[in-house]
Amino acid sequence: MELRGIRGPMAGQDLKGQGLGFGAPASGIPASSIITAVQQQDYSASVWLRRRDKLEHSQQKCIVIFALVCCFAVLVALIFSAVDIWGEDEDGITEDNCSKNCRAVLVENIPEDISFLDNGTSHLPLSAGLYNLLDRAIRVVEIVSPLWLLNSSDYESSFQPAATQGRALLSRLQGLKERGIQLKISSGMIDSTELRMLATHNAEVHYVNMTALTTGHLLSSFWVVDRSHFYIGSANMDWRSLAIRKELGVLVYNCSCLALDLHRVFSLYWGLQYKDFIPSFWSKRLFALFNKNTPMDFTLNSTKAQAYISSSPDVFIPKHRSSDLEAISWVIQEARHFIYISIIDYLPLLSRSAHKLEPACPCRSCFL
Questions:
Q1: Which CATH number is associated with domain 85-113+121-367?
Q2: A GO molecular-function term, please (predicted)?
């Protein structure tokens, strides 16, 4: 009770002595000012803490966003690595502006020791047809052939005069460099002197390891010139195909729609160089323009016609492309009067493979 009566400096000194600081200081600063200053400091501290929390939260958001961006970049890279065959520039040719007024010419090679009746039908010699394509070339010549053996030996040329056609064709191909025309070749995994010679004349050569990809062999043989003209046929780039073998093919001129579609097949082979796996996805530039269900309507030698490019094996078929088996079956089913067939062999027992082959299109089911 007595302590309640204490006033003035005693109280202030006691409080200061206890370290509470609520007494009147010696400088005369009011206690209310000190309390206000402490409150302001507390407010400033709380503001700083809130700002620090916001900053930490923003940093966490940035880290999360950065991680998501990195994950997205990795995902895109994985997708792009799967779609690693992109196809090439198509010179502005599209399905809408390509040429559909086409001309076709059959070409063949008849061995010199084979003669036909005087009234038999003869076609343009294969060598002359290929020379004609090279004469028309302006920008690029694209060739797919499983074999390159155009240089015949002196001994072979001595008893086969036509063997010189192979050397002449090789010389024409080498001459493309002087004309400023690009030569692109896709071939099987072969050791070819001719390909090495062409490479020294600025030819680009890509090798496709079909054995690693399909355990099979490259058998395709075609040319695409300026994505406007093309050749498809049985002949390899072999002097024997120009001299002593029976070969048949077709040249198609001023037909950029089909030539562009065939160029996409070439681009697929071109992109498979040295690969030992089939891509999970194909580029849109490799998709077929026409197929069995939607063939191209065009004019061929002044006659209305339909056509599309097929391919095989199935693992080499991007979106919309019809397989060779589908095309052959369709031709058989659409026949009305007759079917003429010329092939090297058909029976599975003639296959090079040691495994037994069951034909997907057996004779009985195809022709009944």
A1: 3.30.870.10
A2: catalytic activity
